[in-house]
Amino acid sequence: MLTKEIIETEKRVHLQTYLRSEIVFTHGKGVYLYDSEGKRYLDFISGIAVNAFGHCDEQFQRVLTKQAAKLWHCSNLYYSEPQVRLAKILVDNSFADKVFFCNSGTEAVEGALKIARKYATSTKDENCFDIIAFNRSFHGRTIGALSATGQPKFWEGFKPLLAGFEYANFNDLESVEKLISEKTCAIIVEPIQGEGGIYPAEIEFLNGLRELCHNNRCLLILDEIQCGLGRTGNLFVYEHYGILPDIVTLAKPIAAGLPMGAILLTDTVAKQIKYGDHGSTFGGSPLVASVAELVVERIHDKSFLKRVKENGHYLITQLENLRLRFEEIGSIRGIGLMVGMDVNVDVNKIIRSCAENGLLLLKAGENTMRFIPPLIIEKSHIDEAIEKLIKAFEKVREENG
Ligand SMILES: *Cc1c(COP(=O)(O)O)cnc(C)c1O
Fold first, then answer.
1. Is the CB of 193 under 6 A from ligand 1?
2. In this predicted model, what pLDDT tens digit does every residue of 191-233 receive, in sequence order?
3. 59 C-alpha vs ligand 1 centroid, how far in Å?
4. Whole-angstrom Cα distance, residue 19 to residue 9?
5. Alpha helices in 138-280 (DSSP H)
């Protein structure tokens, strides 16, 4: 199909819920993507923090094709080795004693909410179903995950939401203290708010949440779907904060682009889940799990994480330099290779201009540019991105006179 034909046909036959850029991608290699016209793009989106190892990495191709010749799926009625190996490497390298696999971030959140309610039903009583979430958060699109998402714009047309959700302000412990009660079963929070605009939690805030949960016998659920698995330069974001969560949700980068979500939990919580309480047909299939095992193995390597930290630091430094040059740039926030930069001009204009120059960038919140490149990025790629950004800001400046 011709490029134009693909775009026109999509508009006719696919549900119109994605406002897509008019680019058709055909292949990718490393940190670059190529479109149907042969144009090359430096990928600073990574499929929304999914392609941590860039595109078409040969080690992943080998693992995938090897497993594809053996067994793809056998259901969770039986055991399979890749799933067990993946669970083991996650347990061996985290706070968790148990893992559950599903197929997306939303599903991981949904499962975590169910587990929290089951835990409260068993340890307190079934009226303890309240969940505290945060304004500006994002946890997914199913009714449960949507109810945890503290952004009314996502609710429009889908009410009533699930009962029992309350919203506090991020980085404002007092607003949580006001809501918490003996009816609370969990607090769910992104240690770094992603979709909301890249806002890292303050140390005192996350520590305060941990203590509040402890004192009120409710669970601390960390949604590390976007920020976790190496993006900040640690395998898990909670490590930066020196706290231990009760539940962590993972997804985006976990299987290098294949769909997978995971729920990590402690034995104390896991004990309250009985056979048949939760499940998934596809979750943790041998094909996806074999790829995910290599992802976790490669990320948890110390020198790999050190490079992420160094490059994240370099990216922030270069953006800070850019800010000295352009008054259009406001605050810069982030940890490792998860960085947000506020702009006081139309953020969509800058992003469109970057795409024209062959650089893919994403928005977060209302006026924040989001930098979530593949974790294998090198300094030269960051320099290349900065050059393209300079062009984009100069162009917007010209247009605005
Ligand atoms: C993307 C995201 C989700 C939802 O994940 P899906 O795989 O799109 O269902 C949930 N929480 C956070 C923090 C996310 O960034």
1. no
2. 999 999 999 999 999 999 999 999 999 999 999 999 999 999 9
3. 26
4. 15
5. 143-148, 173-179, 203-215, 238-241, 267-270
